[in-house]
DNA sequence: CATGAATGAGTGTTCATTCAT
DNA sequence: CATGAATGAACACTCATTCAT
């Protein structure tokens, strides 16, 4: 009995520390970007030696990928736990997804994902590991878009690929960053307008 | 009289070289990204010494800023030279602008702007220098958006800031990159669908 | 009575483990060389914690020295247990020694000694600890060389030191490695030729 | 005329510096071995910045290879410039080669070659670059060994490969290091004895 | 003005060694 | 006694920037 407890204590501490590292790494990446985030700085901010960092993540890449993946997992889980009923419209379902993506109060999550997503270096990592979670999220959205088309909610003349691409580009929280940060709009306000635009835009046209 | 002429000759050569540097720098950035573009490589490709590069641009940042600015200038000029007549709808005018942004056959221009716009390092520079041209382009778009509202083309209930932000996010050529590169759509096809979505989305609703 | 037994049991276990460590260390060194053998890997292969390794050997050097010494001890013992009769020629005795050095079928032993003997790092250790066993082995060879001289087998005009040095350089199994590995000669073949050369070379000249 | 002179001046300085780097690198390698020789230390001892080192040699490997190759070239050249006449015996020719290999008063050259030759890391480099010079030297020796066989000087029953391997192992200056350094023998003395052993050993046996 | 050699701070990563548990 | 997490010095290599010529 003793050993398991002991182990799980250590394991718990390990996970806590790993969590801390991920948190710090996120902060630094948010401040400085992927390239300018050095393992040195992360270690220093966490308050551990550089070598210790490498005990948790064998490469800088892995660390970055870890928190990217974690965020994607969070999103995917939230999406999968969404209460979807038959009578809900496709639009309502997609709006729930948008809400999840924007939920993070500080907007950190979205920024982070965006930074990584567009980092020249990270893209390579991403391709190599071909993140499954990413695909599953986008498949979910695609499924709802197609559902909307068959239900007669959305315009069937626009290819689903293009709808998907548009969904992520307009509704991406990053896209409208400036509005919150500099222009004083609330997230809610922006979100509701942008959704309005998108869903009107893709709505099935009265024949 | 002599000296000025001499000077202006030199000045002309200087400008020609500067132009060449900017061209080369663009190519390299397109190939390798901001961070992986080294001053060495630019100098080598231009065929001048590295020191000479620094005679034209005191920092790497400045060089990058310069060609960013130049592209923006090109776009601004094209926008300003657009043949706009009174009877043209606001939508038609905005579509012309979108065309300009996408015109560049290879998509080079758009890629370039996007790379810089999202480069971790360059963002800082951009904020510091607060590019005037950028503002003037966006002012132009904003003006047309507002014109559309007053003309009854666009929904007056959506704040212009949000329309603007949406305009740039959906219509950005970069947003839909994957569709050309991996999914086999043509630029034209994507563009026309995305425009349809956007303009329908912002259209004034029948009361 | 109890405690000593207990102790000796523990002591026995300790020695067994030490033996195991030495075995594993040898294998790794043979595979990867001195420098690329990490304490981590040895510990992992033995199945103990890294800290435990340091309970047995305070430094990496010491561990390496230990198995070097052990091999030398093995060789020395084998040499000392050689059945030497009065009527055996000095040459026959020396040939037995050569056989011992080459006996190890796989050539492991010889490779190992050579690796350590020529390892940049290890040489320092070797000098500091000035391995006694090494000297005893070479003393044995020297004794036979001198015996050969007095018996009239070997040329008395060549200083024994030089004979000794030559003995180890020509007859070293490592010296002819390439011949086995790349040229397809058998160990036996090479050995017999090389011995022929050496013993003819040092034979007393007919006056 | 001016530019060429200028260039050749710069070029001369460059070569001088490169020479200095090679010298220093040799010294450090002799002191510490391949692995423990750091680029930092070489730079510091030369009195230049680390970056400057990399201006001359793009990798540590290249620097090491450069002076290895240089030494081999020196030896090869000396061998090729040897005055060989028809009536010279094969043995005489081979002795000249041995003399060249031992000529270096301090024995530095030989040590250096040996260190590199047996460095775990450098071997890889050597294999990749498959040093031509090395092969040409050994081909020269092999040619003389075979000449000796056909002339009836050397024992035709021993495969030339084995003769070659023995030649380099017995006659290698490194093999007998200890004798000079610790036992007080002169190079000349050792050399002459060792040659005697080798050439007697390989001599054709009276039938 | 043009050059390009020189700089040196900075990067990710490794690994022998220590020590609290 | 055994553990293995933590350390931190060390390494090869890069590149924007400077400056003597």
TrEMBL record, chains A, B, C, D:
Gene Ontology annotations of biological process type: negative regulation of DNA-templated transcription
Pfam name, any one: TetR_N
Entry keywords, A to Z: DNA-binding, Repressor, Transcription, Transcription regulation
GO molecular function, one term: transcription cis-regulatory region binding
InterPro entries per UniProt: Homeodomain-like_sf, HTH-type_TetR-like_transc_reg, HTH_TetR, Tet_transcr_reg_TetR-rel_C_sf
Portion annotated as DNA-binding: 38-57
Domain of life: Bacteria
Domain HTH tetR-type, residue spans: 15-75
Protein name, as recorded: HTH tetR-type domain-containing protein
Source organism of the structure: Dictyobacter aurantiacus
């Amino acid at each position: 009995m003793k050993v398991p407890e002991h182990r799980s204590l250590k394991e718990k501490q390990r996970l806590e520390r790993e969590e801390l590292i991920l948190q710090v790494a996120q902060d630094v990446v948010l401040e400085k970007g992927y390239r300018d985030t050095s393992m040195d700085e992360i270690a220093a901010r966490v308050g551990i030696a550089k070598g210790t960092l490498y005990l948790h993540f064998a490469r800088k890449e892995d660390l970055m990928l870890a928190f990217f993946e974690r965020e994607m997992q969070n999103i995917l889980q939230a999406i999968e736990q969404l209460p979807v009923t038959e009578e809900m419209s496709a639009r309502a379902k997609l709006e729930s997804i948008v809400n999840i993506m924007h939920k993070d109060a500080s907007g950190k999550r979205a920024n982070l994902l965006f930074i990584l997503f567009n980092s020249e270096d990270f893209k390579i990592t991403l391709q190599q590991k071909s993140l499954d979670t990413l695909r599953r999220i986008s498949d979910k959205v695609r499924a709802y878009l197609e559902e909307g088309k068959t239900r007669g909610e959305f315009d069937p003349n626009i290819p689903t690929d293009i709808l998907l691409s548009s969904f992520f580009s307009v509704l991406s929280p990053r896209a409208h960053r400036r509005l919150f940060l500099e222009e004083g709009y609330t997230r809610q306000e922006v979100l509701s307008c942008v959704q309005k635009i998108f869903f009107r835009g893709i709505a099935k046209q009265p024949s």
